[in-house]
Each structure stands twice: as C-alpha cells, then as structure tokens.
C-alpha cells in the first residue's frame, strides 16, 4: 500500500491588516502520497503562492493542521521537523554567494556531513542539471534558465522530504523552459521527492505531474483531481492528450470568468 505522507486538514489561511481580514484558503483538506508529484493548477490570484508559502512555513495558518509522516512518525510539517526544499518564484538564490555556496548552504545550515558518497551524489546533480561549469559564478552572472537550474540543484542536494515549487519555470522563454523542465524531470525521476508544484501552465502540469489538481477561485477549493498518464511526455500527438488539455483549459477559463464577474 502506498503511504500517504502529507495531510492537510481543514486548513485556513488569512491575510490581516489592522482593519481587514482576507480569507484566501478556507477549510482545505488534501493528502499526498509518498513520491507523488502533485501539480496544482490555478488562475492568477487564486491562492497558489499562499498555499505553497504556508507549506514552506513562511506564512502561518490560522487553523487546521498540516502534518507529514517521516519514519512512520506523523508530526506537524515544519522546517524544524522536516527537510523542506522550497523553490520560490524568484528562485531564492543569495546574490552574494556563488552557485556552489548557494547549493551547499542548506547542508551547512542543517550541519549535514558531506562524505565522499554525498560528494559524488552532488556532482551527479550538478551534471544532470548542466551547471558544473557555473559553480564559481554569482547569480547575477547567470541567465534565467541557469538560475532556475541552480535553484533546482540546491533543492535536490538537500534530499528534501518535501519539495515545494512556486511557478519555477514561468520567467523563462519557451525553449529554455522546456529544457529546464526536462532537466528537472531527469533529476526528479532519480530521486522521486514528494513534490508540490503550483503553476498556471497546463502543459507544465501535464509534463511534470503524476497527479494534477485544479484550484478554484473560491477560497482555495480544489475543484478537480486527475491522475496524469502523460508525465514526461511532451506534446504527444494523441487525441486523449489534447482532450485532457482542453478539459483543463476549460476548467481554468471557467474560474477566470467567475473571477471577472465577481
Ligand atoms: N501579503 C498579502 N496581503 C494581503 N493579501 C494578499 C497578500 N498576498 C497575497 N494576497 C492576496 O491573496 C490572494 C492570493 O494570492 P496568491 O499570491 O496566493 O495567488 P496566486 O494564485 O499565487 O497568484 P499568481 O498566479 O498571480 O502568482 C490574492 O487575491 C492576493 O491579492
């Protein structure tokens, strides 16, 4: 039986100012299996980043719980209890550190020892993501695609219990994006980290997810879930693929229309 790793139960997330409260996510319940790559598709402003930030521990939840099972032990998901790899929209590389120092920083923070086996593992990740020649450069000396690849390397090097990605490829041009997705999938296939990626790109969802969820505009409600048979297949010339794409597109359109009317 496949283990369920991540449990969200009745999660509520709000933004508050002195006079107002915005409820962005209301009573969200969700479970993720070990080794699953769940892609959450949603239109702009529906709450994707809010959710991913709450999972990463950078935004507090108002109520409900988020728990993760590690070594048969179910505990609240926190950066203290678990290794969480987080690739935010801006990639989050520190500009004053080289690519190599950025990539090794999480190991340093968590006081992880780098023995010969780990060194080899790290070299393989650099090679798989094609950044070995960039290790001594600073983020400002890199192209957008190279920054993304370095951020992905950093996340995989720490062997995360949970990998969170917020529209990681959205700032890239079409060709670089395709290449970065392919390299990502290469490394993901070797590590099978339990992953949640949020995006508004249907193609990205179909290429990178083994499960897809569509998030509505109604306070984080998940409107639709599907197991995705197209993982790793780019643009298959297949009627079912095209129909699936259309179905997802229609769902997102309905959501966008709703938002415009409201
Ligand atoms: N710090 C904040 N204070 C108040 N409201 C916020 C804050 N951050 C986001 N919001 C609001 O919460 C809602 C969800 O924002 P969020 O950034 O999570 O959406 P998103 O789905 O990630 O959008 P996009 O795809 O455009 O990045 C939006 O209506 C936004 O205006």
UniProtKB/TrEMBL annotation:
The keyword Hydrolase does not apply. Gene3D superfamilies: P-loop containing nucleotide triphosphate hydrolases. Pfam families: ABC_tran (PF00005). GO terms for molecular function: ATP binding; ATP hydrolysis activity. Residues 8-242 form the ABC transporter domain. Keywords: ATP-binding, Nucleotide-binding, Transport. SMART domains: AAA. SUPFAM superfamilies: P-loop containing nucleoside triphosphate hydrolases (SSF52540). This is NitT/TauT family transport system ATP-binding protein.
